[in-house]
């Protein structure tokens, strides 16, 4: 005799959907958090320059190509945080995994460049470390979300 009743089966399906929605929301939150941290890095840089009354640092950091990259990153983080909330296709869930992994490379590359130029890390490093940690967490969450499939 089957111990499952139609009610218990629908409750299981509902909890399965709730779990998927939570995973999806967590991945979206990682994209949003990375966006906010990147904006924090920029604001911190501008505040430090304003206090010193010296904005010359922005002539070479992030540089001409760097400013374009920052605009692209800000746009990318903003779009991804929305797309993750509105689209749930399997291929898109798996696409988030390498994309989130890629986002941890930007701050690592940026700080490596500073170290190679002999510059000491500043306060922005703390925010960039958080971007890396959120990227790692986001990747783990994205894998969990991507593996989700409806229970039969």
Automatic annotation (TrEMBL):
It comes from Pseudoduganella namucuonensis. It comes from the Bacteria. Keywords: Membrane, Transmembrane, Transmembrane helix. The chain crosses the membrane at residues 25-47, 67-87, 94-112, 124-146. This is Uncharacterized protein.
